[in-house]
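Following the same procedure, the fold was encoded as C-alpha cells, giving this record:
***
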Amino acid sequence: MNITKSANIILIGCGPHSKRVYLPAIKNIEHLNLKMVVDLEIQSSNVESSLIEFPETELLLIAPFDDSLPSDLSNHLTKYIVANNISGVIIATEPLVHKAYAEWAIKNGLNILMDKPITARANAVSDLSCAKGILNDFLEILENYKSLQLEKETIFMINSHRRFHKGFEFVKEKINEVSQKTNCPITFIQAYHCDGQWRLPNEIVTQEYHPYCSGYGKASHSGYHIFDSIYQFYKASEIESKIPETMEIVSSFIQPNGFISQLNEDDYYKLFGEKYTFVQNHNDEQLKELMNDYGEIDLSAIITLKKAEIAVANFNLSLLHNGFAGRTWIKPGVDLYKGNGRIKHESYNIQQGPFQNIQIHAYQATDKHEKKNGAEYYLGGKNHFEIYIFRNPLLTNDTGQPKVYTYKDIIDNENGNEESMITMERVKFSVVEEFADYILGKRTKASIKSQIEDHIIPVQIMSGIYCSNIKRKNEGNNVVLSSWGENVKENIQ
C-alpha cells in the first residue's frame, strides 16, 4: 500500500444526511480535505450555514437536472478535479440522479462512496419499464466500473451501513459457524423495519426529502438496507453446492391513497381540532386524484429462493414508514432526517433448519436521541440492540438456552464513545473512515466491505418488488422471477 500525505475529495449533495454524518465524519479524519461541495441553488442558504467549519471548501450551486449531467456541469467538474488533484467523491444526492453522477465519476477514474439505493426511478411504483430500469441502471454502472478496473484500480462503495455494524457482523459470524458445522444454510428469514414516521397528507404531496410524490417510496428509502441485510445473512450461510439459482418475488404495497383511507380528514379534525385547517391544502377527494401513483408508504413481500426449480428458503419482509411514532404536532420540524417524532423499530428472525434460530430486536421508545439517560442499550433506548441465539443440543452440549447478547456485550467500549451517540450514526462514520483509509493508502481494496460488485442481489430484490406490485395491479398474477445474482442470463422476467 502506498500511504499518501493527504487526499482531496468532493461532496455532491449536502442534505440532512450529509450534515449529520458526512460533514462531521470528514472533519474528524486527518489528512482528508473537502475541497468542494455541490448542491442545488435552492439550497444555498442551508448549505452555506453547514459549511461554516469548512472555510476552505468551495461551494458550487447548480440548477436541477434530469437523467444525465448537463455538459457544462460535467466539463466544469472534470476541470476542477484535475486542477485540484481530487481522488474521491461522495455522492449523497436525490437517488434519481445517482446514475448520472456515478457515470461521470467512473469516467474520470474517481473513487466513489455513494448513498443507497444505487439508483431510483421516478414512477417505479406504477411503470414496469421504470421498475425494471432499477436493475438495468445497476448493470450498466457495474459494467462501466469493471471496464475502469482494467485500466486503474478504484473503489466504488455503497453506503449500506449495516455491513459495518458490529451487531450484524456478530450475527453473521454465528450463522457461518453453524453453517460450517452442519452444512445447513439459512432456511427462513423474517425481517421487519418501521421508520415510525407520521407524515400528514399535505406533507406527502409536498415533501421532497425521502419523497412519495416522485413515484417511489419505502423500498427506495430505508428498504434497501433491509434487502441488503437479508442477503448478507444468507450469504454468511452459503454452501457452495447449495447456492440458489433463482428467486420468486411477490409483493404488496400500501400507497398514500390507502393511507388516507386509514386516517381521513374527519379523523384529523377529531385529533387536532380546527388547527388542522392551517395544514390542509386539499380535501380527501383531491388527495386521491393527486396521489394515485405516489410511491409506497408500506410494503410486504415474500421472496422464495429456488434451486433446480425447488423452493429451498423463504424471506418474509414487512417494511413500514407508517407505524408507531412520537409525533403530536401539526407542522413538521426543520430536520426531516431525525426528530419529527420518528421512532425506529427493527427485528429479524433467522432460522437455520433445525440447528439455529437467531433473533435481532432493536426498538426505540422515543425520538429524543441527543442526551444520555443511562439506558441506551436497553429496551426503548436509542441503542437498543439485542440478539437471542437458540441452538440445537447437538451444538451446545446442553448448555442453557437462549444465549442473549446486547450491543454493549459485543462492542469494545473502553472509551465510551459508542454510548454517547446513536449506534447507527457511529456506524455511518466508520463507512466514511473506510473510504478515507483506502484513498489515503491505509487499506486494500480487498478489505472494503461494501463494494458495488456485491450489490446485485439487493438490487434484484428491490427491482423485483416494484415489478411484482405493478403486475398485481395490471395482471393479477404478480409472481416475478429473478436470478439469484448472475447465475442466469435473464435477471427479471
In short: Residues 413-418 have pLDDT under 50 and may be disordered. The chain has 15 helices and 15 strands.
